[in-house]
Design goal:
The chain has 106 residues and is mainly alpha-helical. The protein folds into two domains: 67 residues; 39 residues. Helix content is 92%, strand content 0%. It has three helices and no strands.
């Protein structure tokens, strides 16, 4: 490209357009870089979201396949409470017997 051709192409650009380009080119480049970074971040977040969704789906399938009947669970819980009460009564009786044995021995 000759020097004369370069001058002609510069002269074809309006001074306001040249000034606007000079003033805005830096911020526009920065904005473009920021948008590219945002796009990357969105892709990473979408990937993580998809992984979480897959894990939750797997967890849901596991919990549904290992379903425990609430009535059955309640019945087992009541049995445990009943055994706990019986054990408390037996421990109290054992304490009384130990106290009597200590009295007789002592």
């Amino acid at each position: 490209m000759s020097e004369e051709h370069l001058r002609e192409s510069i002269n074809d650009v309006h001074p306001v357009e040249l000034t606007a380009h000079t003033v805005l080119s830096g911020p526009l480049d920065s904005l473009n870089a920021s948008l590219a970074s945002l796009d990357e971040s969105q892709m990473e977040l979408l990937t993580k979201l998809k992984l979480l969704e897959d894990r939750l789906t797997t967890f849901k399938k596991l919990t549904e396949s290992n379903f425990v009947d609430e009535k059955q669970l309640s019945a087992h819980s009541n049995k445990v409470k009943e055994f706990s009460k019986r054990l408390s009564v037996i421990l109290k009786q054992l304490d009384k017997l130990e106290a009597r044995v200590d009295k007789l021995a002592g």
